[in-house]
Design brief:
- The chain is 0% helix and 61% strand.
- By secondary structure, it is mainly β.
- A hairpin with a 6-residue loop joins strand 4 and strand 5.
- It is globular, with a radius of gyration of 14 Å.
Length: 103
Amino acid sequence: MGGNVYDDMMPQFLETKVDTLLREGPGVLLGVLVTSHSNDPGIVVLYDGSSTDGRKMLDVRAPTNLTYFVEFKYPLSFREGLYVDVGGDVDSCVVLWYPEEDG
């Protein structure tokens, strides 16, 4: 018997370097890993929706030439979808989430 509803599920993840619709529909965001590669911080913005027109959930800023990981003790819910807007100074972005059933 697990401690939460996700104990028997495998999280979804995707590595990207470009703006991407990661999921259509509801789910929960578990974490984000961002690697910066230039003289400026790498910035990734996550939205609840199918584009940057959705509700802004979070900005993640990785310091210059470093990797930064954000893990949520309490996952962040999204309803419409999960869209990631990847800035130009990002070398890599990995997003982890659990999908949920519509309804």
